[in-house]
Amino acid sequence: AQSVTQLGSHVSVSEGALVLLRCNYSSSVPPYLFWYVQYPNQGLQLLLKYTSAATLVKGINGFEAEFKKSETSFHLTKPSAHMSDAAEYFCAVSRNTDKLIFGTGTRLQVFP
Amino acid sequence: EAGVTQSPTHLIKTRGQQATLRCSPISGHTSVYWYQQALGLGLQFLLWYDEGEERNRGNFPPRFSGRQFPNYSSELNVNALELEDSALYLCASSLNDRGRRGTRTVNEQFFGPGTRLTVL
Fold first, then answer.
1. B32 touches A at CB < 8 Å
2. Are A97 and B50 within 8 A, CB to CB?
């Protein structure tokens, strides 16, 4: 069975600081991993995805994530937070065309 | 290129009524997924349709049902509405690239803005 755990339901950073959102997965087969962002009252937007190619994945808006099999992790990072990054972030796992299994989400707050 | 569209944006119903939510996928996408985002319960998979067939179903009662039309658009129907059905219902679409034999394909899902269902 596949599952995703996001550590920390809320993360607060200052503008310009490093953003680190944690995601650990559990999967019996090599997973496909995704990070999505949700702004208030909107749907989900794909930030990046891991598909077993490069372990360091670059996404939109300056975000990137590193797949670490030994740690079963896929943490999301951004070197310098911007006010516009304030949103809820979801890590998800899937197999092929199957459903996405989401973590519980992490709400990112960015302070000036 | 138009994204996934959903209608209506908001829907208010009373307990016991039926709700119908609609989704139009991105052009060329044959798979449609429905998710429920309820307060405190996170994002839960509801249904997956592909090529007009229901392919997978989440852990929801039978009063949650749907269908996919020949143009790949989809409807989600919720019968006998209960208060706890109040949620944001998200639709997503993806390509269903079967790829070559033995190879795995990645089908990222693109989400619509959602329908906010409120049950009073």
1. no
2. yes
Instruction: Give tens-digit pLDDT for A73-94.
Output: 999 999 999 999 999 999 999 8
Does the distance separating the beta carbons of B90 and A43 come in below 8 Å? yes
Give residue A52's identity as a one-letter amino acid code: S
Task: Tally the residues of chain A.
Answer: 112
Given a contact cutoff of 8 angstroms between Cβ atoms, the answer to whether A12 and A20 are in contact is no
Phi, then psi, of B85 in degrees rounded to 5: -80, -10
Contacts of A53 (CB under 8 A, 6+ apart): none
pLDDT digits (tens, 9 = 90+) for B68-82: 999 999 999 999 999
User: How many angstroms from the chain centroid is the CA of residue A21?
Assistant: 7
Contact call for A36 and B111, based on CB within 8 A: yes
Q: Scanning every residue of chain A, which has its alpha carbon at the shortest distance from the alpha carbon of B114? A: A43
Q: Decide if A98 touches B, using CB distance below 8 A.
A: yes
Do the Cβ atoms of B107 and A90 come within 8 Å? Answer: no
* DSSP symbols for B3-47: --EEE-SEEEE-TT--EEEEEEPPTT--EEEEEEEETTTEEEEEE
